């Protein structure tokens, strides 16, 4: 079943109005929430939090999906596996603390390779320990927070009779809530017995990926009685038309966000004019097209930090493509500020200053407002300041910005990747503008014509109220809420709006 989403139809309509021809498809951030790639901006198991994940297959096709967990410092992989979803299926999982690190478990019946169960599978540090060290922490504590990406590798069909019941689609399709034979699917990759048909030829019973997935993440703290849920970001047009060959073995680092093969991106732009226009940007690499749809010059959201009501706020700011611009171990030279590829600043391990391990910092600026348009005479920076830096900077792939916290782990999400904003007296509630504009020195992504200012970012704000006096003596009333960030895109072409 091939689908045409509302987003694609709207883009095509705008393209027709604009007189743009040959727009067969491009990477775009789905406004409908479904796609072939899902980005879950944050998971955490710190401070007694757990993170629940779900993905839904809205189509009548089977789906082969790569599930990848990435740690928050430098997006090194901590676990991946293959997921095979039945038509109209839902898969759920839970990320919890396991020993010194994190791990994932599931009570779901959908087929995974290798097999997962209700006993957590621990995350691993292989990608950043020993010979793979990247100057960041090498122990399992680095797996305690990060983010998740799900990438469709193809549709599953019944072209070939791969087992006694039929094709691969028959094997993964549920009957009375249980797949017909996960053992056949696992055996296809050499896990257990049976025909190793995918290990021999990964294209058997696999068609081109065509999207239709959506997902959500939920951060739960049972002891605190709090929960915060968010929708995963969905990418459409990730693959070039009729893409094949994306189906890979469990443990493979492919596919990833750089391998979709589609180097053209669709973005909507206003540039402050109030008039929406469609920009079509064709890059030399597909990762730039993915970055383009996340490019933003400003991140906006609210904060509340009123101690009278036990209120606190934390922002998650994740750069889902950053590793493809900054993670080059061979370029790390002691006491050398190694450049990254634009739109980022320095490679991981060289820091914002000279030779600072475990970071790749990008300068940002802050504007703080209260609810009555008041703003401090001197805008605050981050504490602690980045080593060697002259101003605020975000230094990791998944960052947590706190407000009026004293240091250490953040109070809500338990993050260790923290930058704190010390608000001035009287600034207990309002909004903030986190700007990535550096005058286009580094923070620019261009296809040679259209130039996007800022950095590719996603995330949300979490607000928590811990009100011990609510409802009378002895009643603890905890409340949390999650709000998606708001963004400002700046894209220009020779002084005019992008087109």
Description:
The chain is mainly β. The strands form 9 sheets. Strands 1, 2, 4, 5, 8, 10, 13 and 16 form an 8-stranded antiparallel sheet that branches. Strands 9-7-6-3-14-15 form a 6-stranded antiparallel sheet, with no helix packed on it. It has a 6-stranded mixed sheet with strand order 24-27-26-21-32-33, with no helix packed on it. The protein is about 10% helix and about 35% strand. The protein is globular and about 75 Å long. The N terminus is likely disordered. The longest helix has 13 residues. It is built from 6 helices and 36 strands.
What brief labels describe this structure?
499 residues, mainly beta, 8-stranded antiparallel sheet, 6-stranded antiparallel sheet, 36 strands, 37% strand, globular, disordered N terminus
Short description:
The chain is mainly beta and 499 residues long.
Sheet with the most strands? 8 strands, antiparallel
> Shape from CA axes?
globular
Strand tally: 36
Detail the poorly predicted runs. Answer: 1-8, 13-24
Cα distance, first to last residue? 32 Å
Q: Mean pLDDT, rounded to whole units? A: 89
Which class of secondary structure composition applies to the elements? Answer: mainly beta
- Helicity, as a percent range: under 10%
Count of separate DSSP helical elements: 6
Beta fraction: 35-45%
- Please compute the radius of gyration using only Cα atoms: 23 Å
């Amino acid at each position: 079943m091939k689908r045409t989403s509302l987003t694609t139809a709207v883009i095509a309509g705008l393209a027709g109005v604009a007189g743009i021809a040959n727009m067969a498809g491009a990477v775009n951030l789905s406004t409908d929430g479904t796609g072939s790639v899902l980005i879950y901006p944050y998971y955490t198991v710190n401070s007694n939090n757990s993170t629940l994940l779900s993905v839904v297959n809205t189509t009548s096709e089977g789906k082969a999906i790569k599930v990848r967990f990435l740690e928050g410092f430098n997006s090194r992989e901590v676990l991946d596996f293959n997921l095979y979803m039945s038509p109209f299926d839902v898969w759920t999982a839970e990320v919890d603390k396991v020993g010194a690190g994190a791990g994932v478990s599931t009570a779901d019946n959908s087929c995974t390779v290798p097999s997962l169960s209700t006993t957590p599978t621990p995350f691993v540090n292989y990608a950043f320990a020993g010979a793979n060290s990247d100057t960041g922490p090498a122990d399992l504590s680095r797996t305690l927070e990060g983010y998740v990406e799900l990438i469709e590798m193809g549709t599953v069909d019944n072209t070939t009779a791969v087992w006694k019941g039929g094709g691969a689609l028959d094997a993964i399709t549920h009957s009375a809530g249980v797949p017909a034979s996960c053992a056949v699917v696992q055996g296809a990759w050499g896990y257990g017995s049976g025909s190793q048909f995918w290990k021999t030829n990964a294209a058997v019973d696999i068609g081109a990926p065509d999207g239709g997935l959506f997902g959500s993440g939920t951060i739960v703290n049972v002891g605190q009685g709090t929960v915060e849920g968010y929708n995963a970001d969905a990418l459409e047009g990730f693959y070039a038309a009729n893409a094949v060959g994306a189906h890979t073995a469990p443990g493979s680092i492919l596919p990833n966000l750089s391998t979709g093969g589609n180097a053209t991106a669709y973005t909507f732009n206003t540039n402050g004019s109030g008039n929406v226009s469609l920009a079509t940007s064709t890059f030399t690499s597909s990762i730039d097209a993915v970055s383009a749809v996340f490019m933003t010059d400003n991140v906006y959201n609210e904060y509340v930090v009123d101690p009278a009501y036990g209120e606190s706020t934390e922002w998650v700011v994740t750069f889902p493509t950053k590793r493809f611009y900054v993670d080059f171990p061979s370029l790390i030279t002691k006491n050398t500020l190694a450049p990254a590829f634009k739109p980022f600043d320095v490679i991981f391990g060289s820091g914002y200053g000279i030779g600072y391990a475990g970071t790749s910092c990008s300068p940002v600026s802050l504007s703080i407002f209260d609810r009555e348009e008041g703003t401090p005479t001197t805008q605050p920076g981050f504490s602690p300041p980045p080593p060697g830096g002259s101003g605020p900077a975000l230094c990791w792939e998944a960052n947590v910005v706190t407000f009026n916290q004293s240091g250490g782990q953040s109070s809500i999400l338990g993050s260790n990747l923290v930058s704190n904003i010390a608000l001035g007296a009287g600034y207990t509630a309002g909004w903030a503008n986190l700007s990535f504009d550096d005058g286009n020195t580094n923070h620019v992504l261009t296809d040679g014509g259209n130039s996007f200012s800022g950095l590719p970012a996603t995330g949300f704000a979490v607000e928590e109220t811990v009100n011990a006096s609510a409802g009378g003596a002895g009643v603890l009333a905890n409340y949390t809420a999650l709000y998606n960030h708001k963004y400002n895109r700046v894209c220009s072409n020779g002084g005019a709006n992008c087109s």
